[in-house]
Amino acid sequence: MAMKQHQPLDFLDGAPAMPKRKGLSFGSLAVLAAVALLAIVVALQLTERNRGRPLSGPAPDFELTLFDGREIALADFRGQVALVNFWASWCPPCRDEALELQALYSDYREAGFTIIGVNMLESSPQKALDFIEEFGISYPNGEDREQRVTNLYRVEGPPESFLIDRAGNVRQFYIGSVRYDTVSKAIEALLAEGR
Description:
By secondary structure, this protein is an alpha/beta fold. 36% of the residues lie in helices and 19% in strands. The radius of gyration is 30 Å and the shape is globular.
């Protein structure tokens, strides 16, 4: 039996060659490796950033001289729900939250809630006092000129806030402007725990 010979397929001669499938190029692998490395570095920095920060458990006690000259300590507010708010007059998010914080204080003060404002990184006490007057802030505020309270809470920049229950434990931590709707729910829950 004779083998039949195949004729060349002339119509394929002008067709574009099919690209050969390869694995990832060196450049693609380098980009993927760089992205993975960046993700690891960011994760490690976030972990390190929060190391030692009181995100739960007993809130570090502190003393603070208020702008009116009175001395207070966080321990003075045991039995109340407290929000310790770190702020500065030059900080745009602090300005955004100022009226919301005052509204929270006004609405929940009689129920056993307070706010302690800790002014930080201010160039002059007068700027802080002007801020307090501008926004009609009536809750206790003091200047942390030597950054003792700021360092105790490992605050990196304003605004940061710590919500503390009646027993003196940190229950919530907020970076950036606080919003009335969000924080009021947490305050109500903590106030209800003490009943």
